[in-house]
Amino acid sequence: MKEAMDLDIKFLKNCFIVTEISANHCRNFKQAIALIKKAKECGADAVKFQTYTPDTLTIDVDNKYFRIKHPKWKGQTLYQLYRKAYTPWLWFKKLKRIADSLGIIFYSTAFDKTSVDFLEELNVPIHKISSFELVDLPLIEYVARTKKPLMLSTGMATLSEVKEAVNAAEKAGAKDIILLRCVSNYPAKPEEMNLKTILHMQKLFKCPIGLSDHTLGIAVSLAAVSLGAKVIEKHFILSRNIKTPDSFFSIEPQELLELVRNIRIVEKSLGRVHYGSTEGETKNKVFRRSLFIVKDIKKGEKFTEENIRSIRPAYGIHPKYFKHVIGKKAKRDIKKGAPLKLELVS
């Protein structure tokens, strides 16, 4: 079983890949289990749920303030949407037990103090605050007091709001904070992502930066990893043919497989700052250019641009000596196809 001490994210060698289940279980316990198993099978590091009820998020009122305008969710109030989407709290203990037995990390987004207390009873190893709750500083302080790693999603947030959230968490005792670059649009457009912000956040906050990615496909996540993202979070569903509140911007198992595989490739390719030949390149240095005799030359004959050239392979002298050699004389007869050596030049 993986405990909190395994989640020292600052020193993770590999990107932490999180599958966000959210409402994609369709309020079907067996489907929730299937999602956990499939996430593990595809190579994800963690499954994340959301711990709320309609009443912990909003109130049951039908007026212009609570009606949803998003094209995929319109025609209902916030309360009605959350009633369809929330995960029954009675499931959590069993779901965590299953995840633990499979060796995949289980945690959940907390939305109020009751959900924090509930998740603490389950001993989740990490806490998450969503973008919409980032401005709820009292909630962030309450979660931070658990002293567990804390992920903060930053969708919609101004820089000052991110700073306020981080300061609140640190003052309340948070030891490890992970900030997630996020665009809270569903689906988010690639041109809205501004991934270069990840680099700025790394310099400014000196903590691991990840990406909560609501774009379609996996390309944006891969780009984020190339910029140093240490966490990637994607909504995950068994099939988008299963209609849920989140299905239209979730990835399917084959996409998750590709995401995991390609993230690991990107990580390997990042390497370190290096110039010169790699181990694999060394044997190919022979195919670089060098100076060769391209016409038969008699002893005492001058080297000219007609009888020597810079060509492949690299058995002759370096091309940088070309101008130095031109006009000099050959010490002996040299056949066409011979590499030019300095000892042949008088």
SSE arrangement:
Blueprint: E1 16-20, H1 29-41, E2 46-51, H2 54-57, H3 78-85, H4 92-102, E3 105-110, H5 113-122, E4 127-129, H6 137-144, E5 150-153, H7 159-171, E6 177-182, H8 196-205, E7 209-213, H9 219-226, E8 231-235, H10 253-270, H11 279-282, E9 290-293, E10 308-311, H12 322-325
Parallel strand pairs: 1-2, 1-8, 2-3, 3-4, 4-5, 5-6, 6-7, 7-8
Antiparallel strand pairs: 9-10
Provide a descriptive summary of the structure in words:
- The model is unreliable at 1-6 (pLDDT under 50).
- It contains 12 helices and 10 strands.
- The chain has 2 domains: 9-270, Alpha-Beta Barrel (TIM Barrel), CATH 3.20.20; 279-344, Type Iii Antifreeze Protein Isoform Hplc 12 (Alpha-Beta Complex), CATH 3.90.1210.
- The relative contact order is 0.12.
- It is of the alpha/beta class and 346 residues long.
- The chain is 32% helix and 14% strand.
- Helix 5 links the parallel strand 3 (105-110) and strand 4.
- GO terms for molecular function: N-acylneuraminate-9-phosphate synthase activity.
